[in-house]
Amino acid sequence: MMNEIYCQSCGMPMREEKDFGKNADGSRNEDYCSYCFQSGAFTWDTTMEGMIDFCLQHGGEEGFFADREKARRDMLAWFPTLKRWKKG
Predict the structure, then answer these.
(1) Residue 21 and residue 37 in contact, taking contact as beta carbons nearer than 8 Å
(2) Of the candidates 43, 7, 42, 41, which has an alpha carbon nearest to the alpha carbon of residue 24?
């Protein structure tokens, strides 16, 4: 994974142009994915825990997580390091 860019809200890898969110002026947002950020704003208001629950549900449906409890623990450790969820 060479310099992989991850959404700083949901953790999704952003690899293609369509994966990136858009700023208010229509330019590409380098921090947030197209699911989390459009037209210069977050697409929905949620907590970090709400985002984790959403990711677990969506990823579970897609078969991304063999062990959902381990995935939850990993996200609870990783998400506080993402820009949207950092404290301070």
Answers:
(1) yes
(2) 41
- Spatial CA neighbour of 38 closest among 26, 51, 50, 30: 26
DSSP label at residue 22 = E
Q: Alpha helices, DSSP H only, in 1-88? A: 48-62, 68-78
* pTM score, whole prediction: 0.87
What is the rounded distance in angstroms from the CA atom of residue 29 to the CA atom of residue 50? Answer: 22
Q: How many beta carbons lie within 10 A of that of residue 51, not counting itself?
A: 20
Whether residue 31 is predicted with pLDDT greater than 60 in this model: the reply is yes
Indicate if the pLDDT at residue 3 is higher than 80: no
What's the pLDDT score for residue 83? 97
